[in-house]
Amino acid sequence: MIKKLVLLLFICHLLTGCKQDDQVSPKTYLIPIGYTGWVKVQYEDGPINTSTSKPDEYRVNKDGIAITHDPHIHEGWATNHYYYVDQKGKRTKLVPGKMVHGSSSGMEQGGETTEYFYIGTSEQFEKDHYISNE
User: What is the pTM of this model?
Assistant: First the structure.
């Protein structure tokens, strides 16, 4: 009986201490209230004005672009958070599958990752499912 208990405790210890290689920290996206359309999160070297003071939090501009210094934006799985933000900073949570659709990432030149997702209703997403190459 004691051997089984020790084995069980060892397995639990192993499982709680392991982090999967493709697990990353969740990101928070702050989107201007009322914005609908594709959002592009892209890497740029230099000054940025779409980041906030918190790591892994990105402010999307009125054109649907967020800039990051992280060249590997999305290299793994995480549950990201999406919010509409009004002029006073009040956040309204957007629910994936209802107002957030089509999340994807891909490699760009130089190995930097660009991430895309769509903000809008399912009907809007179905009409505007094309990602612009701008």
Answer: 0.70
